[in-house]
Amino acid sequence: MSEKAISYVEAQLKTLEGDLSHVQVYNQPANDFKALEQESFDAVILNSVVQYFPSIEYLVGVLENAIKLVEPGGTIFIGDVRSLRLLETFHTDLLLSQAADEQKVEDLWQRVQKKLKEEEELVIDPDFFQALQQYLPQISQIEIQLKRSRADNEITKFRYDVILHIGKEVLSPSCSPELLNWQQEELTLLSVQEILAEKQPEMLIIKDIPNARLQTQVKLEGLLKRKNEFVKVEDLRKALVKTNKPGFSKKPGLWEKPGLWEVSWIEPEDFWNLADKLAYKSYITWSALNSDCYDVVFWQKSSAPINNGLPLLPTENREQKPWTVYSNNPLQSKLSQQLVPKLRTFMEQVLPQYMVPSTFVLLDSLPLTPNGKVDRKKLPNPDINRSHTEYVVPKSETEQQIAKVWQEVLKLEKVGIHDNFFEVGGNSLLLIQVSGKLKEIFKIELQVVELLKYPTIYYLSQHIKGESISKTDSEEARNIRDTNLKEGKSMMKQRLARRQKHRSRYQFKD
Questions:
Q1: Are the CB atoms for 326 and 144 separated by under 8 Å?
Q2: Which residues contact 59 (CB under 8 A, 6 or more apart)?
C-alpha cells in the first residue's frame, strides 16, 4: 500500500467507534518485519500484491519471514496469484481481441512471444507452493484454490488464491479416498451427483476436469500453434467460430492435444453448487496433469476427523528445483528497456547515421538452419508492435511529446501519428499511465475516456491543442478541433483508398 493509502487508513481509524489503539499501520518494504513480534498473528494476508514483487526469490524471503509471525495453527493468505501455466493463453486471448482482421497470424504469434518476454509482473506456477512446503516444513498444509464466481473475466480465468497453514494438525479420513478421472471415465455432472447421492463416499477425488472458463482461450492457443495453416487473423477467428459449433468433430492428427474439442467442459461453480446441495464440502484446485483442467475433492460434512477443514490429500515428493523454474523474470523487460537506448547511443557514436539500425530486436539466440547458418525466415518481424497503418513520423511539438510518452509506456522504438494505441500493445491500465504523464506535460485535465475517444497521436494532439486554446476562447478552439479532425479523417480515407488501389493493381499483375 502507498503512503497515501496508509495515511487514509489512519485517518479512518480515528473516526470509528470503539478502542482501536491496538491497531497499527506501517509503510515499509514487504520483506521488512523488524517492527513485528514473532508468533503474534493469527493470519497474514498478501492479497493482490505478490505480482508486483521483483522476483520469485523475493517472494520466498517474504514468506519465510511471514511464517515466523504466525502462531501455530495460523494461516498465510496469498490472493490473486497470476498463473504461469496460463500466461501464454492469457496473452494470446488479449492480443487477438486487439488484432485487426488483416493482420498476419505469424505477426500475432510473434507479438504473443514478445509479450511473454516483456511481462512485468511476477507470474507463478502453482507447483511453486508445493515445492515451498518441502522447503519450509513449518507449512503443514497448502490450499491452492480457483476463484469462486461465474463472472467471465481475467481474475476468474487466470488467477488463483493460496492458503498456507502453519503448524496445523491435519487429520486423515477414516478410509482411502475414491479416485476418478473425469476424461478417462467419461463422467458428467449428473453421474457425479449420482455417485455422491447413492454411494455416499466419505471422500471422492475427481481429476482432470476441463475448465469451461478457459474453453475458448485454450482452443485459440491450439489454433495459433498451427499458425502455418492460416494467413490472416480473420482466418483464425473463423476457425475458432467453427470449433465452437455443435457437432464439430476434429480430424485425427490436426490438434496438439488429442480429444481437445470433444471433451465436456465444466464450469467449476457447478461443482461448488453441487456440494452445497448435498451433504458434502468441496475443494477445487488446478490439475497437475493439464494447465486448462482442475481437480475436485468432495468430503462428507459429517466426517468427524476432517469436518473442520481440508482433509489430508495424497501428495508426491518433488525433486527440488531452482526457484526460477516456477516463475517468469519481471526484471527482464526493464533490462531490455534500458539496454536498447544504450546500444543505440553507442552505435550513433561509432557509426554514420545512415548505418544505425532503425529498430532493435532482442533475442535469446539466433535461429539457425541445419547447416548452422542464420535462418532468416524465422527471424521475428521488427515491426510486430506496429499497427497496420502507414507510418508517419510525429512532426509538431505536441505530437512528439505524446509519441515520447507512448514509447516510454509501451516500450516501443517508434510510433507513428496514425498508430492506434491499442493496436500497438496498449491496454486500459497503460492508458491510465499515459493519462497521468500527459497531464503533467500539458498541464490540462485529461480524462481516460478522452484518450479512448482519441486513440491515435494525430487525433489526440488535435484534441489537446483544442483544450489548450479553450482556456481563452472555447468556441474558436472547438471550431479548430472539429476542422482538424475532419481533415484528419479525410486524409486517412484518401490514404486507405491509395493502399487499396495499390493492392488491387498488385493482385491483377499476379
A1: no
A2: 50, 53, 122, 124
Residue 301 contacts by C-beta under 8 Å, 6 or more apart in sequence? Answer: 279, 280, 281, 307
Contact between residue 262 and residue 210 where contact means Cβ atoms under 8 Å apart = no
Beta carbons of 312 and 171 less than 8 angstroms apart:
yes
In contact, 213 and 152? CB cutoff 8 Å: yes
The grid coordinates listed for 236 are 483464425
Residues 227-247 have pLDDT tens digits of 888 889 899 999 888 876 544
Is-contact 144 126, C-beta < 8 A? yes
Cell of 499: 493502399
Read off the pLDDT of residues 153-193 as tens digits, 9 standing for 90 and up. Answer: 999 999 999 999 998 776 666 667 899 999 999 999 999 99
**Res 334: pLDDT:** 72
CA gap 150, 152 in Å, rounded: 6
Which one has a higher pLDDT value, 490 or 133? 133
Q: Which three cell numbers stand for residue 58?
A: 523475493
One DSSP character per residue, 407-432 reads: HHHHT-S---TT-BTTTTT--HHHHH
Name residue 486's amino acid. K
Q: Nearest to residue 409, comparing CAs of 400, 421, 420?
A: 421
145, β-bridge pairs: 161
Q: How far apart are CA 465 and CA 72, in angstroms?
A: 63
- Determine the angle formed by the axes of helices 56-69 and 127-135, rounding to 10 degrees: 50
Write the DSSP assignment of 170-206 as a string of letters. -PPPSSPPEEEETTTTT--HHHHHHIIIII--SEEEE
Residue 54 DSSP SS3: coil
Give CB contacts under 8 A, 24+ apart, made by 391-397.
Answer: 391/416, 391/419, 392/416, 392/417, 392/418, 392/458, 393/417, 394/457, 396/461
Residues 6+ apart with CB under 8 A from 199: none
Query: What is the rounded CA–CA span in Å between residue 29 and residue 14?
Result: 25
- Is residue 383 packed enough to be buried (19+ CB in 10 Å), middle (13-18) or exposed (0-12)? middle
CB half-sphere exposure, 316, CA atoms < 13 A: 4
Q: Largest alpha-carbon pair distance within the chain?
A: 84
- Three-state SS at 52: helix
Name the band, by pLDDT with cuts 50, 70 and 90, for residue 111. Answer: confident
